[in-house]
Design a protein that fits this description.
single chain; Double Stranded RNA Binding Domain; 2 domains; 9 strands
């Protein structure tokens, strides 16, 4: 597994990097097969250290966790516990859904935009009807089954997930409804 360990305006020493690789590697190896890479970012928020970890699995799933603590090692340990709990919770579902999958999930490139909300702008009439783009990024759209897409959405803690349905060339969407159920949009 490849590790990318970095700090936002703080120095990450060799001892912390070694600790992260050992502990996270052990947790991920226990509950997930074939992890590809992990990104761990440390930052400081007020008096607390914040650790954000994202692990990509070859099955196409992405698990992420975030924790804060007064000490940098404590922040990582709390984040690692959350990651381990998340992977343990989905271990059975991961094995059931992906036991037949031999190849990694196919990903397609797409553009992702963040549009300015109305509250960000003045209460005046806009000059044009075109929305103001705050940020433009590249993102990946995975080729997944509906069950895998729901699991990926839950692992990421996202309210919505856009994916290409396996065996088809159409874009599908799964989302969390207000009543707590999962909605699935499948264009015909």
């Amino acid at each position: 597994m490849r590790y990318q360990i970095s700090g936002k305006q703080i120095d990450i020493g060799d001892a912390l990097q070694t600790h992260v690789k050992e502990e996270l590697g052990e947790a991920v190896k226990k509950y997930a097969e074939r992890p590809t890479d992990a990104q761990i970012i440390f930052s400081k928020s007020g008096h607390e250290f914040v650790c954000e970890a994202t692990v990509h699995l070859s099955t196409g799933l992405t698990a992420s966790a975030r924790a804060s603590h007064n000490e940098i090692y404590g922040a990582f340990d709390s984040c690692n516990e959350k990651m381990e709990k998340q992977l343990r919770r989905y271990k059975r579902r991961l094995k059931d859904h992906h036991k037949d999958r031999v190849e990694p999930v196919e990903l397609y490139g797409a553009s992702s935009y963040i549009l300015a909300s109305e509250s960000d702008s003045d209460a005046q009439e806009p000059e044009t009807l075109q929305p103001m783009i705050v940020a433009e990024m590249q993102t990946k759209i995975a080729n997944l089954s509906v069950g895998e897409a729901v699991m990926q959405m839950e692992l990421a803690g996202a309210p919505v997930l856009v994916f290409r349905k396996e065996g088809e060339d159409r874009i599908n969407v799964v989302y969390r409804r207000d009543d707590g159920n999962i909605g699935w949009i499948d264009p015909s």
